[in-house]
Description:
The complex is a heterotrimer of chains A (221), B (220) and C (241). Chain A is α/β, with parallel strands linked by helices and 221 residues long. Chain A has helices at 57-64, 79-84, 101-111, 119-125, 141-155, 176-186; strands spanning 18-28, 31-42, 46-50, 73-76, 86-89, 159-163, 190-194, 207-212, 215-218. In chain A, strand 6 (159-163), helix 6 and strand 7 (190-194) form a beta-alpha-beta unit. In chain A, helix 3 packs parallel to helix 5 (141-155) and helix 4 packs across helix 5. Chain A is globular. Chain B has 220 residues and is an all-alpha fold. Chain B has helices at residues 3-20, 22-41, 46-70, 78-86, 91-120, 128-153, 159-170, 172-186, 192-212. In chain B, helix 6 runs antiparallel to helix 7 and helix 6 (128-153) packs parallel to helix 9 (192-212). The longest helix of chain B has 30 residues, at 91-120. Chain B starts with a helix and ends in an 8-residue tail after the last helix. Chain C has one domain (8-166, 177-215). Chain C is built from seven helices and no strands. In chain C, helix 2 packs antiparallel against helix 3, helix 2 runs parallel beside helix 7 (180-217) and helix 4 packs antiparallel against helix 5. Chain C is elongated and about 85 Å long. Chains in contact: A-B, A-C, B-C. The B-C interface holds B 148, 151-153, 156-159, 161-162, 165-166, 168-170, 172-173, 176-177, 180, 183-184, 187, 193, 197, 200-201, 204-205, 208, 212, 215-216, 218 and C 63, 111, 115-116, 118-119, 121-122, 125-126, 128-130, 132, 134-135, 138-139, 141-143, 145-147, 149-150, 153-154, 157-158, 160-161, 164.
Amino acid sequence: MRARTPVSAAEGIVLDERLELRADRLLAGGQAVLREVDVAAGCGEVIGVAGPNGAGKSTLLRALAGLPCGQEVSREVPRPVGRCGVALIGHDPALHPQLTLAENLDLAVALAAGTRGSVPDALRRVGLQAAAGRPAGACSAGMLRRAGLARAWACRPGLLLLDEPTAGLDGASRTLPADLARETARAGGIVFVATHERQAFEAVAHRWLQVAGGRVREERP
Amino acid sequence: MSGGQVAALVRAELRLETRTGDVLRGVAPYAVAALVVLALSVDADTRLLRQIGLGAGGAVLLLFGAQSAARRGLLDTDAVRTLCAVSGVAPGTVLLARVVTTAAMLFALTAVVVPVTVVLFDLTPVGGWWLAATTVLALVGLATLTALAATLVAATSVRAVVAPLLVVPLSVPLLLAVIQIPATVTYGSTPLSWLLLAALVDLVLVTSAVTLAPWLEGVR
Amino acid sequence: MTRYRSTDLVALALLGAGFVAILLAPTDGLQGVLQRLMYAHVPAAWLAYLAFALTLIASIGWLRTRHDRWDHLAVGAVEVGVFFTGLALVLGSVWGKPVWGVWWTWDARLVTTALLFLVYSGYLALRRGIDDPRVRADRAAVLGIVAFVQVPIVHFSVVWWRTLHQPPTVLRPGDPTMDHTMLAVLLLNVVAYSAVFVTLLRRRMDLARGERALEQGRLAPDAPVAGDAVVAPLPEGGERG
C-alpha cells in the first residue's frame, strides 16, 4: 500500500488524494472474473456499482478492500483513508453466530483502525439496541444486515464497501444504507455500493460503474 | 502488532469456548476416557501402572491437546478471517492470539488430565518443581506448535485430519522432556538438561512462528 | 504422451547394474543373505534426508522469490522423499527383525525417520486441502521450513533419551568396518538410487509445471470470464430464440 499526497503549496489543500485499483485481471475461485480493471475514486465520493448476477461486483469490492484476488493487483489508498481503515459489509454479515451482536461489534471495533464510534450508539442508529445481547445466530437475515451496517457506523471506516446492502431490509430501514454512505462520504471517506436497487442510491451516488462481460465501465449520464 | 487487537481476539475466542465448550466439554471427557481405558488395559498391576502413568498422561495430553488445533474456533470462520484481513490486522497478531488461546485451553486440559492420571495410575510426584517448570515450558511449546498447525490448516477441507498429524510428530521432544524428569531425578542426577531441551524447542518454535508469520493467513 | 529422456534410461541401467551387483556381492558372514537389504536401505534413507533438505531450500526459495519453480521443486521433493522414507522404513524393519530380533527399536535414526514420514505425509495432505495455488504454496513452504528445522532437535532428544536407558539391542545398525567389495556395491547403489531420485523428481516437477499451466490456461486473455455462465432466466413456458 502506497499513498501519494501531492499538496498544493499555495493553499495546503490535498489535491490528488485518489484511491486507485489497477489489475490485468481479478480472480475468484481460481477463475478470471474481471479484466483490465482500472478504477479510481476521490475522497468524499460515493460510487454505485451496477451489473447482472455473477458479473463480478463482489469481486471488485473484495479487490478494493485489499483481499487477495490474483497476482499483480496494484492498489493505492490515500493516506487519510488508509488511516481510518476499511470496512467491507458483504453478503456474509461477518458476525460469529455464537457471539452476541454487541460482542461481534466490539470485536470489529477493537480490530478496526483510526477513530471509532461507540457500539451502543451504532446499534441504536439501526434500531437494534434492544437486541444487543442476542447471539447473531438467533437473529433474522434482516437483523444481521442491519447489524452489518451498525458495524460500519461503529468502525467509521475511510473506505466503505457495501455489497447489496438493501437486501433483506424492511421498509423502515431501507434508507439506512444510503444514510450510512452519505455520512461516510461527508466525513471524507470513499464509498462503493454494489446494488441492484439503484433508486435507493440515486440521491447519494455521484457516479455509477457498470460491471458486465468481465469489464468495469464508467457509466456516462 | 497491537496488544489491543490480540486481547480482543483472545477475549472473543475464550468467550466462544466457554459457550461452545469445544475443548473442555468436548475433548476433555474423551481424554479422561482414554486414561481409564489405558489404566484398564494393563491389568491391576500397580507397579506397572506407576511406571507408565506419567508417559500415559503425557501422551493423552499431547494427542488430545493436538485436537484443539482441529477445532473450529473464532479464527477459523471465514467471516472473522475476512474481517481481520480487511481491517489490516497483521498475521503475527492473529498467530499470537491463537498461541495465547491455545495455551489457555491446554492448561485447562492439563488441569483435568493431571489429577485423573495421579488417581488412576497411583503416581507420587517426583521431581517437584523441575517437573512443573518443564511441563509449563512444554505446554507453551505445544501451544505454539498447535497454533502454527491450526493456522496452516485454517479454512481447508482437511483441517480435522491434518492438524494433529502436523503437531504430534514434532512435539516428541517436549513429551520426552516431561516424562524423563522423574526418571532422571530417581537416578540421582539433575534434570536441567531436559528443562533446557523444552526451553530450546520453545525458542525454535517461537522464532519460526515470528519469522514465518508474515506468510501465514494469506493476506499481506 | 510420455517422453523418455536419456537420463531416464541411464537411471534404469544404473538400477539394473546395482541390482546385479547386489546379487554378486559376498554374503555377510554374520547376518547372511538378508544383509543384502542394506544396499537398498542405505541409499533410500540417504535420499529421504536429501529430499527433505531440498524441500527446506525450495521452501525458503519460494517465500523469498515467489518463483513457481521453487514450489514445484518442494512438492516434487516431498513426494519422492516420502516414497524413499517409506522404503527405508520397511526395508530397515525387515532387515532388523532377524538381526536385532525385533521389528522396531527406539534408535534415534529410526524414530526421526518415522516422524519425518508422518510429518511429510501431513504436508502432502495439507497441499491437497488448499485450492488457491498461492495460499497452498505459502503454507506448504512454512511447513517445509518448520518441519525440517525441528529434525535435529527430534533426533538429539531421542539420542539423549536412549543414553539414559541402555538400548536393548546387541547389534547397532551401520557397522563402520565393511568389506571393500561390499562398500563398492553400496556406492554403486547409492549412485543408481540417486539417479532414480533425480529422474522421479524431474518427472514430478514437469507434472507440477503442467498443472500450473492448466490453471493458467483458464486465465488466458480470451478465456471466458466467470460471469459468462449467467444469462437472463427463461420466461415461464418460453423458449429462448
